[in-house]
Amino acid sequence: MEVSINNIRKEFDRFAALNDVSLKIASGELIALLGPSGSGKTTLLRLIAGLDFPTEGQIFFGAEDASHHSVQDRNVGFVFQHYALFRHMTVAENIGFGLKVRPSASRPSKTEIRKRVSDLLDMVQLSGLEKRYPNQLSGGQRQRVALARAMAIEPRILLLDEPFGALDAKVRKELRRWLREFHDRTGHTTVFVTHDQEEALELADRVVVMSQGKIEQVGSADDVYDRPGSPFVFSFIGESSHLPVEVKDGTVLFQGEPIGVSGEANSSGDLYFRPEDVELTQERDALFGKVTASRRLAGTRIAEIDISNPGGSNDHQPFHVEIEVPLHAPIELGSEARFRPTRWKIFGR
Ligand code: ADP
Ligand code: MG
After folding, report:
1. Closest C-alpha residue for ligand 1 atom 17
2. For residue 15, what is the domain's CATH number?
3. Using one digit for the tens of pLDDT, what is the confidence trace for 225-247?
4. What is the pLDDT of residues 285-300, one digit of tens each?
5. Same domain, 218 and 247
6. What is this structure's pTM?
7. Which residue has a Cα nearest atom 6 of ligand 1?
8. Which helix (H) or strand (E) element contains residue 100?
9. 151 CB-contact burial (10 Å; exposed 0-12 / middle 13-18 / buried 19+)
10. ABC transporter domain location, by residue (predicted)?
């Protein structure tokens, strides 16, 4: 089911939680809404679900304007972070619940419900656990039951709001891979909300980066990581540093000196780069500063560098940047590091 979100605005007492949001979700696509807390992810998901309605704009399911259709009429499935399964119902009863409460005209027979529950249990790889109660399951199993329950009504779209947020890191990673495979098997149009960039980058066909009620960028994981379209996206996804620069005749100047980086138009702006996109150098035209700290991450080491700021603010605060250095030949604390960004982007001011 293709979903078109057209110029949506959502106000709560005049506060715009969403402002001119437009997005086309292709049929069968797995989309991640990624953004910091308060950026409007849940609000957008609730509007798609029909749990709330837009102040302005429309939401189309295929050719049908669903903007003001109730949640029952939209036939969507959703799973939330703290999705409470019914504690007094078994796994099978939980999954079958949405079918059992249908009006009699569209309610499947008991045998049909039992068959469907058993297929769904197969699908989420929990066969054999139908008689268990939620408190006899692990957190990861519970979220898979919640997913099966959302799927039971044969939804047109699956909406997941930080479904793995309450689980520990290892289980979350397993479920992430599992969900990707599950999606590839079942092919449901799925919108997945997360504030975890790794989860979004690994899982989604396309990532929608949100900030303050607006969409900042939509693209593949490679697009948003390698070609961030705004300072916000550059900083929010992955690690990055930035310095104020000027561009003169194709040369980028920091504090009036060339740093071995080229630029396009004559302008001033901020030079953004990632720690992994620098090389240590002995060249004259380079950035340099004092190594103030270094820390090991899983497979790499990051050095923190203070670049002095003689022309800067009154208190002469140094600029602080982070660069990746060889893991087994780390540069010494207190020594000077010279380096040059090898990939960068300048955002004009
Ligand atoms: P996210 O899911 O990205 O953390 P939300 O969509 O929950 O963000 O919230 C976006 C903004 O809208 C926040 O500033 C939040 O306080 C506000 N908001 C959300 N729901 C309501 C509501 N029912 N009433 C008033 N403000 C709300
Ligand atoms: Mg939320």
Report:
1. 17
2. 3.40.50.300
3. 999 999 999 999 999 999 999 99
4. 999 999 999 998 888 9
5. no
6. 0.91
7. 40
8. helix 91-100
9. buried
10. 3-237
